[in-house]
From TrEMBL:
It comes from Microdochium trichocladiopsis. The lineage of its organism: Eukaryota, Fungi, Dikarya, Ascomycota, Pezizomycotina. This is Phosphatidylethanolamine-binding protein. Pfam families: PBP (PF01161). Coiled coil: none annotated. GO terms for biological process: regulation of proteolysis; regulation of Ras protein signal transduction.
Length: 112
């Protein structure tokens, strides 16, 4: 899950913000129980005046034998998640796009 609109859709200088990466999924597996999370889930958190953000859920077919690690995607610290080179990552690891979904999310004072 990535945010192409960080910190704002008008100025996405931190795109793509990396929110969640789970490699090695198999059809029918529960993502939560899978156990090979290389980027722990970070909930969307658009700032108050940033406008709605798009969040992309990308599903890739992985080459046989690929074993991605936390080091392959980058650190878990908040600032290490920004500016994730998504296209380079996909090309470097030979990933093939298999599915896409998305949502939008905006700041909500009740959710803070």
């Amino acid at each position: 899950m990535i945010d192409p609109d960080a910190p704002t859709p008008a100025d996405p200088k931190f795109a793509f913000w990396r929110h969640f990466v789970v490699p090695g999924l198999r059809p029918g597996e529960d993502v939560v129980k899978h156990g090979n999370v290389v980027t722990e889930y970070l909930a969307p958190g658009p700032k108050e005046d940033s406008g709605p953000h798009r969040y992309l859920f990308l599903l890739f077919e992985e080459p046989a034998g690929l074993k991605l690690t936390k080091e392959d995607v980058g650190g878990e610290e908040f600032v290490q998640r920004r500016s994730f080179p998504a296209a380079d990552f996909v090309a470097r690891h030979g990933l093939k796009l298999a599915g896409v979904n998305w949502m939008t999310c905006a700041w909500d004072g009740y959710a803070q």
